[in-house]
Design goal:
The chain is an alpha+beta fold. The protein has a single domain, classed as Penicillin V Acylase, Chain A (4-Layer Sandwich). About 20% of the residues lie in helices and about 30% in strands. The protein contains 6 helices and 20 strands. It has helices at about 1-15, 130-135, 140-150, 200-205, 245-260, 265-275, and strands at about 25-30, 35-40, 50-55, 60, 75, 80-85, 90-95, 100-105, 125, 150-155, 160-165, 175-180, 180-185, 190-195, 220, 225, 300-305, 310-315, 325, 340. Strands 13-12-11-8-7-6-3-20 form an 8-stranded antiparallel β-sheet, covered by helices on one side. A 6-stranded antiparallel β-sheet has the order 14-1-2-17-18-19. A two-stranded antiparallel ribbon has the order 4-5. A hairpin with a 5-residue loop joins β11 (about 160-165) and β12. It is globular, with a radius of gyration of 21 Å.
Length: about 350
């Protein structure tokens, strides 16, 4: 077990120190009340091993701890589907059969956990497994808060610091941050999340963009010269387009705010994928010139979850075809625990158009 943790530590540490994890999340609501959560996940070093994971009710899942302790498990109270990074145990985004959705977003330098104490191992959850723990143990955000108050969250590997986005069937959205070992909860009324700084800082930073609005700026006059917008959508002049976390948070908030509400869940899922196109990181932006790895994109995959319909949609940098996992098709009392690569065939599905 210790050997496995060390291997994971090297992989995660490279991503954290290079700021290679640049995730962006957006939540939308349809006219019929359907609720949708979408996000990207980035990794700038090499193709990131990623998996679709099905967890049945009653499954005994091993708990990983920083010292490699063996034997501790958690028994799944709820069945869940998740998308995992690096290993199937590390679910980054998912939903359970009760309608609770949880996603992790890297939070380097701004969060900090309690120290790991071996004598409290049975009350301890490693941060990279906390998403899976929430999904398999809890039915709602209130349930998470109640059960998590009796647990200690620690960093599973050095340099791994995370905050989490949660939503449940009631429509609530909250953000969990752990700073100085203390849990901080925020109501996510703007429906977006990125990486650091803290969520409250991002909300304050939105005040710098109060001048932005959809459509065109009005014609003006300077002296006796009439000035007109050079192009369309000039009301958004000044919207940040870079890939830093503060800029992505602002851009996500503005795109979400101006996006037209769709009639139903499926059309909202399509819109969410479209909005998330704005956050694809082309390979090369996070590397010195001439040192880019051979990858299609630093955005390794994008997922959208329809909480109302209990469906997980995803696409990858290798294959932009949207794929769907419907939780209603899974009998969580009988299905076996399983995981599979997000791209079982690593090629783009291209449809030829002929005359």
């Amino acid at each position: 077990m210790k050997r496995m943790i060390c291997g994971v530590a090297c992989l995660i540490w490279m991503g954290v120190t290079s700021l290679g994890m640049a995730c962006t999340g957006i939540a939308l609501v349809a006219k019929d009340g359907s609720r949708v959560q979408g996000r990207t996940i980035e990794w700038a070093k090499e193709p990131l091993p990623s998996y679709a994971v099905v967890i049945p009710r009653g499954e005994e899942l091993p708990l990983l701890l920083p010292d490699g302790t063996d034997g501790l498990t958690m028994k799944a109270r709820w069945g869940a589907v998740g998308l995992a990074v690096s290993r199937p145990e590390f679910i980054a985004e998912g939903i359970n059969e009760a309608g609770l959705s949880v996603g992790l977003f890297f939070f380097p330098r701004y969060g900090s956990y309690e120290s790991y104490l071996p004598q409290l191992a049975e009350k301890t959850i490693g941060d990279l497994q906390l998403t899976a723990w929430m999904l398999t143990q809890c039915a709602s955000i209130d349930d998470v808060k109640q059960q998590l108050s009796q647990r200690r969250v620690v960093g599973l590997v050095e340099g791994s610091v995370i905050h989490w986005r949660l939503a449940d069937a009631t429509g609530r959205q909250e953000v969990l941050e752990i700073v100085g070992g203390k849990m901080r909860w925020f109501t996510n009324s703007v429906g977006v999340l990125a990486n650091g700084p803290g969520f409250d800082w991002h909300l304050t930073n939105l005040n710098n963009y109060v001048n932005l609005y959809p459509g065109d700026a009005p014609i003006g006059v300077v002296g006796n010269v009439t000035i007109r917008p050079i192009s369309g959508s000039s009301g958004m002049l000044g919207l940040p387009g870079d890939m830093t976390s503060p800029s992505r948070f602002v851009r996500a908030a503005m795109l979400r705010q101006t996006a037209p509400m769709q009639p139903d869940g499926l059309s909202t899922v399509r819109l969410c994928f479209h909005l998330l196109n704005s956050f694809d990181v082309p390979i090369g932006l996070e590397h010195p010139m001439m040192e880019s790895p051979e990858m299609f994109s630093a955005t390794q995959w994008t997922t959208v979850i329809d909480l109302t319909a209990s469906r997980v949609y995803y696409r990858t940098a290798i294959n932009s075809t949207i794929r769907c996992i419907d939780l209603h098709d899974i009998d969580f009392s009988k299905v076996a625990y399983s995981s599979r690569s997000l791209d079982e065939v690593e090629e783009e599905n291209i449809q030829m158009v002929r005359w």
